[in-house]
Amino acid sequence: MATDFKDYYAILGVARDASADDIKQAFRKLARLYHPDVAKDKATAEERFKEINEANEVLSDPEKRKKYDLMGSGPGEGPAGFGSASPSQDEHEFHFGGTGFSDFFERYFSGGSRFGFNEDLGGGFGRGPGRPGAGPAAAQRGSDIEGDLLVTLEEAMHGALRPVSLRSLDRRTGEEKARSFTLRIPPGATDGRRIRVPGQGEPGWGGAPGGDLFLRVRHAAHPDFTTRESDVYHELDVAPWEAVLGAEVVVPTLDGTIKLRIPAHSRNGLNIRVRSRGLPKGKTGGRGDFFLVLNVVLPAELGQQERALWEQLRASSSFHPRPLRETKATSS
Hints:
By secondary structure, the chain is of the alpha+beta class. It is built from eight helices and twelve strands.
């Protein structure tokens, strides 16, 4: 059950000293190419999209990126002990399938514990009363297992059924076991929500029931949208004259495109709210909201006629971005 090293910089096609903006731009470019909704070869694109998301998940997070950079070109090249994902006393090693994340990510960057832990078992991983070498035999419930689950916004919107597998390796005996089940992702699954799968954790001892499996939802980064709870955000680039004069624009949502009116005198960063166009709110009913976030963009280059018009505007405008102050020249 070896874990292959993932070169996240190569996956995004950026240098190891790439800036945060470089990483963001590289991800968006690749995500638009391989998003399953637009790609021609959907099977290949889906795997590539997951790989791109995983690389972005690590490299766009300063703490995760710092940890990753310490690994060098492989897990064994990092700081002492970094190459081992679990304490030496772990008796079981678990590997997920179907969660959307690789074993490499789950081992080193998952937000939860991939190894069963139960304080009732003596405060250790996979050990406790009733286990070999751990004292008198006694029935003990199996430990819970946690991991991350990559969920696309389309799945979070409509819900989905996902085949998931879990392989366990007994470090003492070398025995490997595998089990598979179908996971229901409910509509409105928000980022950070934990989905509980009863009895799919570490097996119990002495006839006791097994632990539970908890999979923490991680929204797949989308080239067009971000989320906060049940609300969906879309950043739209607008020209200065659109922000000043107002404009009618067509914008994407998870339900398809809609027309919106940008009001005159809109400032950079303004949020335009559209009610009930976000993710479903699950048991509470209703939906979150959709927010259009304005990003006023200046032209990178000006032609001769355009420059003349900007100079004319500067000369005739009564607008002053800064308070007018009387200035006095000082002599040295």
